[in-house]
Write a structure and sequence with these properties.
By secondary structure, the chain is of the alpha+beta class. The protein is 35% helix and 33% strand. The longest helix has 34 residues, at 10-43.
Length: 168
């Protein structure tokens, strides 16, 4: 048995060692590539959030991108009392306001449509109601908040699909 071990030349040992080192470097390089891809995806990952905001004389819903990368809107759905409000472009907001009983208020709304890109840290007002002088905010807010639900679907630059909604 000692004769066999002694017959292995130093060239053979060097060759086997080189193969092992080469295989190990392939494994490490592949692992590093996978981790780099994960990092690249995370570094441009969007995170849309819907927020209900209120101030002294207004309230409404804001869409903000708190992620690191842009988001691409793929859809928007608005519900009042569980019934979806159908719209095309900007129309439909009138029906929305009418169903809430707030059609005598000043209202503004933002443009959120499929294909729209929202940059990181960008904020868009979906809809904002301005109160009349005799309005009592404490009565209107809970009523509006419990009746409305909004769902925004979006994707990342890598076509990963997400949904944000309020209430969650």
């Amino acid at each position: 048995m000692n004769k066999r071990i002694s017959k292995i030349s130093s060239d053979t040992i060097v060759s086997i060692s080189a193969i092992i080192i080469a295989l190990a470097s392939i494994v490490v390089t592949t692992w590093q590539g996978i981790e780099t891809r994960k990092h690249n995806r995370l570094s441009v990952s969007p995170k849309l959030e819907l927020i209900f905001e209120s101030g002294k004389n207004n309230f409404g819903y804001v869409l903000t991108n708190n992620g690191l990368g842009p988001s691409i809107i793929t859809g928007k759905r608005i519900f009042i009392d569980g019934e979806e409000i159908r719209y095309t472009g900007f129309s439909g907001y009138e029906e929305f306001i009418d169903k809430l009983g707030l059609n005598d208020r000043d209202v503004s709304h933002g443009a959120i449509y499929p294909g729209r890109t929202i940059r990181a840290n960008e904020k868009i007002h979906i809809i904002r109601f301005y109160l009349a002088k005799d309005d009592e905010l404490e009565k209107i807010l809970p009523e509006v908040y419990k009746r409305i639900s909004i769902e925004i679907s979006y994707k990342s630059m890598y076509d990963e699909e997400f949904i944000c909604k309020i209430p969650k």
